[in-house]
Structures are given as structure tokens and as C-alpha cells.
Design goal:
alpha+beta, Sulfite Oxidase, Chain A, domain 2, six-stranded mixed sheet, five-stranded mixed sheet, 8 helices, 11 strands, elongated, binds protoporphyrin IX containing FE, binds the ligand Nc1nc2c(c(=O)[nH]1)N[C@H]1C(S)=C(S)[C@@H](COP(=O)(O)O)O[C@H]1N2, binds molybdenum atom
Length: 343
């Protein structure tokens, strides 16, 4: 009997499980990168994301052997499997293109879109090939191989970061979230971004409504210029960020005025846009939240949320509600809402 080379014989179950593991890790860390606010936590999540995505490439030689071996047998499932492979390859490619920092910002949107399409393909593909755990899955040998894959993926990610720096690519400067700088200290350069289906309103009101307990008050916009300032980074999940000096009024100050300093410590605050877009935040964050009417010394433009928007330091852009019209103090916990806005 001829001795076959080591690579084809070993390629198989373990390679497939490793691919599945890396894909699941990429999904989880991709979603977490948007949920977890800011560096340093996001830096770790995003680095793991990059390493998991790039780690897929390390397994290509082994996977190629598996594909070649089973191609003839798999006539029925070939189309689905090919689609999965193409989508994953494109997801990795668009992720890397964004990270390099020269592609248009829409590249990241395409990346996430492709990744979302991967999910049903992966589910169908893997379901048809379900595996039972085996005792050897916990063997010393398997652990060593897993360790080697993790180390290889981390090294590949680090090499990528090093290459970006050596090449002086714009991506070398990206934030821990993976976002690229766009319009710091110049709001006119900042992209106007809606989360999903929301649109810039044409009519905006001259006052906001505050509701706490039984009380309700209407505050004219002109009353919101109280000179409270914060420098904070707006970091959109669309892949860009900008630091600005924002000014207006701190939310705790505004609410204290209405409750004579008896603002509850527990509870949440609903910040609601004229458009219906809304986010619920913990009330204990109120001292760090600002209702801003100015950015970089200029009144907000309508696209950026005029007359007043929320500034939520340490949170991703989708929390920074624009065109704020109503603020309600509520008992419901902040986490009782969809993790991402629906409009
Ligand atoms: C099939 C699943 C996915 C794969 C294989 C994948 C792969 C990748 C790769 C290879 C990179 C480039 C990393 C680098 O070069 O440093 C990347 C970047 C990125 N991905 Fe994904 N990804 C997936 C899903 C997602 C999802 C679901 C999201 C968000 C909801 C996401 C968000 C991001 C972000 C924000 C970056 C930029 C990070 C950076 O610049 O370092 N990805 N992805
Ligand atoms: N009402 C409303 N507020 C919103 C959004 C939206 O779609 N509707 N998008 C959010 C998102 S995803 C981001 S990144 C920032 C973008 O702010 P900008 O358009 O001023 O750059 O606004 C946030 N506030
Ligand atoms: Mo955003």
C-alpha cells in the first residue's frame, strides 16, 4: 500500500470544525464590536475578530483537499457549498479592504451585508454534516493543533497590522473599533448618517418635552445653550469616527431642574427623535450625557441633528439620537429594548 502524504490523510473533520469555530467567532465578535462601546474593550474584540477572519485563510490548503476529495460525491450540495465559500471569501476580502483604509466607507457595509448572507448558507451546510463529539476532540494532540491555529491566526493579524504601518496605509491609524478618522473638529466634513431607514426630517420643533414621574415640561431650544461642554468621539458602525467639542446642557442638570434635585437613581431615560427613532439609556449615565446644540462652536446642521442631539460619550454612534424632541424618565431597564435600533 502506498504511503500518502500527511496532508490529505489528516484533512477532514478537525479542519471543518476549526473552520466552523472561526466563522462563529467572527460572527460573535463582529456583532459585539458594535454592541461594546469603545476602546479598550472594543480593541480586543475587534482584534479577535480580525484574527478569526484571517485565520480562515490558514485552513485553505486543508480545506482544498477536502473539497477535491468530496467534489464528485457532493453533486447535490455543491451549489450551496460553493455559494458559502464564495460569500466567506468575499467577506474576508471586504473586511481586509476596509482595514487597509483606502476603500470607500461603504466597503464595511458591504462586509457586514455579506456576513449576514453567510449565516443561512453556513447553517444549511453545517446542519447536513452534523458531528458528534469524540473523545479525541479533547486529546493533547487536538489541543496542540488548536493552539497552533490560534497562534497562527494571531500572528497573521499582527503581520497585517505591521504591514499597514510599514506601508503607511490610512488603516494603520484606525481606531480600536476599526473606524477611520473623518471630520474631527470639522463637522461639515462628517458624513451625515442614518442608522437604517430613518430620514432627515423637514420640520423640527422649537422645544423639547421632558417627562418624569407625573411631571411634564416643555423647554424651548434656546434654553438648552447652557455652556456645558464635552469633547467626545462620534464613532459610527459604518466605519468612521470624528472627535468634536460639543456644547449644550448636561442631561442630569436639565432633569434636576424639573425634579428639584429628586431625580431617581435607578431607572432609565428614553431619548426620542422627532422621527420616532429612539434609544433608552441608564439614568445613572445622565451626568455624562449631553444635549448638544453646537459642534465645534457652530450650531448643529440639520443633517447632524439640529436643533438638538444626544452626545453619548463611550457609546457607538447609533446611541447619539438626532433631532431630539422628547425625553422620558422611565422605570423599565435600559436593556429592555432591541440591541440595535429598528429604523
Ligand atoms: C462570516 C463572518 C465574518 C468574517 C469571515 C469576517 C472577516 C473579517 C476580516 C478578515 C476582517 C479584516 C480584519 C483585519 O484585516 O484586521 C474584518 C473586519 C471587520 N469586520 Fe468582519 N467578518 C465577519 C463578520 C462580521 C460581522 C457580522 C460584522 C459586524 C456586524 C463585522 C464587522 C467588521 C468590522 C467592524 C471590521 C473592521 C475591523 C478592523 O478594521 O480591524 N464582521 N472582518
Ligand atoms: N434620529 C436619528 N438619530 C440618529 C440616527 C438615525 O438614523 N436617526 N443615526 C445614528 C447613527 S447610526 C449615527 S452614526 C449618528 C450619525 O450622526 P451624524 O449624521 O451627525 O454623523 O447619528 C445617530 N443618530
Ligand atoms: Mo452609525
Amino acid at each position: 500500500m502506498a504511503v500518502r502524504p500527511a496532508l490529505p490523510r489528516r484533512a477532514g473533520r478537525r479542519t471543518n470544525l476549526a473552520l466552523l469555530g472561526l466563522l462563529l467567532l467572527a460572527f460573535v465578535t463582529g456583532g459585539l464590536a458594535y454592541g461594546v462601546g469603545t476602546p479598550p474593550a472594543t480593541t480586543v474584540v475587534v482584534a479577535v475578530h480580525g484574527a478569526a477572519g484571517l485565520g480562515l485563510l490558514l485552513l485553505v490548503p486543508w480545506k482544498a483537499v477536502i473539497v477535491r476529495r468530496s467534489w464528485a460525491r457532493a453533486a447535490n450540495t455543491r451549489a450551496l457549498a460553493t455559494g458559502l465559500g464564495v460569500l466567506v471569501a468575499l467577506a474576508v476580502l471586504t473586511g481586509v479592504l476596509h482595514a487597509i483604509g483606502v476603500a470607500p466607507l461603504s466597503m464595511l457595509l458591504i462586509h457586514v451585508g455579506l456576513a449576514v448572507c453567510v449565516a443561512p448558507f453556513l447553517l444549511l451546510h453545517a446542519w447536513g454534516r452534523r458531528q458528534r463529539p469524540r473523545r479525541t476532540d479533547l486529546s493533547r494532540r487536538t489541543l496542540l493543533k488548536t493552539g497552533a491555529l490560534v497562534a497562527g491566526a494571531a500572528a497573521l493579524w499582527a503581520a497585517g497590522e505591521g504591514a499597514l504601518r510599514l506601508a503607511g496605509a490610512p488603516g494603520a491609524e484606525r481606531r480600536g473599533t476599526g473606524s477611520l478618522e473623518h471630520g474631527t473638529d470639522d463637522p461639515t466634513v462628517m458624513p451625515v448618517t442614518q442608522w437604517f431607514t430613518d430620514t432627515v426630517p423637514t420640520k423640527i420643533s422649537a422645544a423639547i418635552t421632558l417627562v418624569t414621574g407625573g411631571q411634564q415640561a416643555r423647554i424651548p431650544i434656546s434654553d438648552l445653550d447652557r455652556g456645558d461642554r464635552v469633547r467626545a468621539v462620534l464613532d459610527c458602525t459604518g466605519g468612521w469616527y470624528a472627535a468634536q467639542d460639543w456644547s449644550g446642557v448636561r442631561l442630569d442638570r436639565l432633569l434636576d431642574g424639573l425634579t428639584d434635585g429628586n431625580l431617581p437613581v435607578d431607572g432609565s431615560v428614553d431619548v426620542i427623535s422627532r422621527t420616532g427613532y429612539r434609544r433608552r439609556l441608564p439614568l445613572r449615565d445622565a451626568p455624562s450625557l449631553l444635549l448638544a446644540t453646537f459642534a465645534a462652536g457652530q450650531p448643529l446642521s440639520i443633517g447632524h441633528g439640529a436643533p438638538v442631539r444626544l452626545i453619548a460619550p463611550g457609546r457607538r454612534g447609533f446611541w447619539w439620537v438626532k433631532w431630539v424632541e422628547r425625553i422620558e424618565v422611565v422605570d423599565a431597564p435600559w436593556w429592555r429594548q432591541p440591541p440595535f435600533p429598528l429604523q
